[in-house]
Amino acid sequence: MANFLNYKPYVLAGLSITWKTIRTTGRLFYDKYRQFPLPYTTLSVLFFTMAFCYYPVDGHWLTGFVMMSLPLVIPCGLIASVYLFFKQQKMIATAGLIWVLFSFVVVKRLVGISGSSRSPVGMNQTATLKVLSFNSETFPVSTDAKFDASLLEADIACFQEYSPNAQIQNQYEARIEKLTCFDKDRQVGLALFSKYPIVNQYGHIWNRAEGPNINGFVCADIAYGPDTIRVVNVHLWSMGVRSDQAVDALQAGNVGLFFYELFDTFDRLKEGFEKRNDQLKEVESYVVGSRYPVIICGDFNETPLGYSYGKLTQNFRNAFEEAGVGMGFTLNRYPYCVRIDQQFVSSDWHIEACQTLSGISFSDHFPVLAQYVLKTSSATPTERLALRK
User: Fold this and answer.
1) Cα separation of 108 and 327, whole Å?
2) 324 with 115: CB under 8 angstroms?
3) What would the pLDDT profile of 189-238 be if each residue is shown by its tens digit?
4) Domain ranges in the chain?
5) What pLDDT does 389 receive?
6) What spatial distance separates the first Cα and last Cα of the chain, rounded to whole Å?
7) Under DSSP, is residue 278 helix (H, G, I), strand (E, B) or coil?
8) Residue 42 half-sphere exposure, CB side, CA atoms within 13 Å?
9) How far apart are CA 356 and CA 320, in angstroms?
10) What topology is assigned to 111-386 in CATH?
């Protein structure tokens, strides 16, 4: 106690100096903000948007909309920084320009720039594992709309909105299906097919009071040679957003219908952000900290700037981001220019390649095909191939 009393004057002096510094800095920033409110607000929005993308905050739907706005906020932040620079606000302008540059670390999620990569020395190409993910929209129901099932063949295939199809089933030895009755003639849901034995399985279809229960996940532990790998096929909450209806209403001059569709889209997006936050937590409970090498793939119903993508990148790597080429859009309907079907892997895998199969166009999604090599595998290529059917 006596020692504290001896140092008390110095502690109080230090606190006083700190408080004065904070007040002076705050007053200076406030005065500058009053002179240039719009540029300062723009840079503040850019800061928080980037912060959410780097470390997604769950629990509130508003963060989803904030993260989605990043492509619009970045050029606005650049314009604000340049404007402040010409107004001799060089310190804030420089900080803004640096933050704009940092944003490209997040923006790179939108573009695959690596292309096919070569395995590290010692990894045999015959040990490559091919994984397909595809929202097949129940496959063509018309006899005229046939498709070549061999184009969808892989070592492991994960389907969302799957309906039983003999052509697909005949290509694989093991499978998991979680289907729900879509109507009296069709069952729709999730399916995971494998050319390797499935030794364990989990899954959950989430209840949806206002529609068919087609969203959920299936998790399979697969005997991959002497190794066991964990593959998760996920279909997060579908929003049913049809933005083309709003565009059609605007083109037809029906302003009332346009705003109705606009607000309906907002409500669906809001509900989707809330539902997917909760669903992803359940999926993560099966994969984060797994002792097995992990592959997560499916229809996430969010862009790479969404909560699900940002949350998973904290523990996993995105296949297209590291080994894809171009934009890799996977939505085969309006607005087209989005990638909502993803594949994520744990650090146990080397990502050989990842591509969107845009030539397969009978669904409203395109398939995503990736190739992986298990880094620490104790199996020889011959042993792996012997386990395939």
Assistant:
1) 10
2) yes
3) 999 999 999 999 999 999 877 777 889 999 999 999 899 999 999 999 88
4) 2-109, 111-386
5) 46
6) 78
7) helix
8) 23
9) 9
10) Deoxyribonuclease I; Chain A (3.60.10)
